[in-house]
Amino acid sequence: MAKLPDRETCVDLLSRMCLIRRFEEEAGRQYQRAKAGGFLHLAIGEEATIVGTTSVMRDDDYLIGTYRTHGHAIARGTPADSVMAELFGKVDGTSGGRGGSMHIFDGERRFMGGYGIVGGNLPLAAGLALASQYRAEDSVTVCMFGDGASNTGNFGETMNLAALWDLPIVFLVENNLYGMGTSIERHSAVTDLSTKAEGYGIEGERIDGMDVLAVRDRVAAHLEIAREEKRPTLVEAFTYRYRGHSAADPEIYRDKKEVEEWQGKDPIEAFIRACDGTLDTAEIERIRDEADKAVKKAVEFADASPEPPLETLYDELYVVGETMGWYAVDERSPEPHRGEYGEDAPDVAKELAESGADHTEPDHEEQSRPGVRN
């Protein structure tokens, strides 16, 4: 068992885990109230993996995650206010309200974002590590992804390049036993994911992702390897999510007894027991109370934050510039369709988008361009 750190560190670890837990619970509640839009993926139960990892990272290290990353940003130092505002789609959110739950981002704290494509963050992580190597910096990239992502083509390609180029990166698999609703036994021929990169020359280790002290101890060792030996490694953190894959998940693929069994290994309660004699009951209650107040304040902040102005709808989007390009290819019939006109297309899409954002009916003026179907 890893050694208990000093009292100040214990307070910090518990505070961050409690804050993330309360944030996720409230995010789920706000989603039910239709305040948080889009998809919502909660990490309740995975706090030890998140906090244990980030607690041993340096400020100049890079962290990149998947679409379940509210807690990752908070653990990295992003204010809960900004994360909640992003869920609400408000201008004071981490991405100005344009990203939502799956696209939390805080470049200032080197949290390089969450990504909705499974395994999509893996090659980006290799690019971040390559940048550190190219600049002769000793910063390390930590790439966190789910068990399902270990089956993607991006996984193999990224492992190969990371090993080939000796990139300073720690790949951390948050193995919560399910890729969406598919159990690991059904989606991966190799269920010990710590061995899955060995064929590319990358050593792996499985750790207890429900034990924040174990995560701290082992991730710190892997960070040292990346920083000092300039080579990649892989860590499989065995963890569990108490809620479904997303807030819309009916969870018909797993038994309630299984969830209850893992709740008996709750990372927060386990750490509190480990801190017996270091943190008293009053201190623990104070930490919980502060987390609760911080989350209530975050909701108030998000509620008060304004909606993005309608005229900014197209800001920071990729558009066709001087070089002509097609928006779409439609093979339903030989004549050209709306998307194939590119920048010369009638402004139907813009009209519909603006009317939708403004909550008004669109102008149904007939489009008269030859060959365009309405």
Q: Assign the CATH superfamily of the largest domain.
A: Thiamin diphosphate (ThDP)-binding fold, Pyr/PP domains
Tell me the number of helical segments per DSSP (H or I, 4 or more residues long): 12
- Cα-to-Cα separation, first versus last residue: 67 Å
Globular, elongated, flat, extended or rod-shaped: what is the shape?
globular
Which features characterize this protein?
alpha/beta; 2 domains; two-stranded antiparallel ribbon; 12 helices; 8% strand; disordered C terminus
Note down, in words, how this protein is organized.
The chain contains 12 helices and 7 strands. By secondary structure, it is of the alpha/beta class. It folds into 2 domains: 7-304, Thiamin diphosphate (ThDP)-binding fold, Pyr/PP domains (Rossmann fold), CATH 3.40.50; 310-357, no CATH class. A hairpin with a 2-residue loop joins strand 4 and strand 5. It starts with 6 loop residues before the first helix and ends in a 17-residue tail after the last helix.
Short structural description:
The protein has 2 domains: 7-304, 3-Layer(aba) Sandwich (Rossmann fold); 310-357, no CATH class. It is 39% helix and 8% strand. It contains 12 helices and 7 strands.
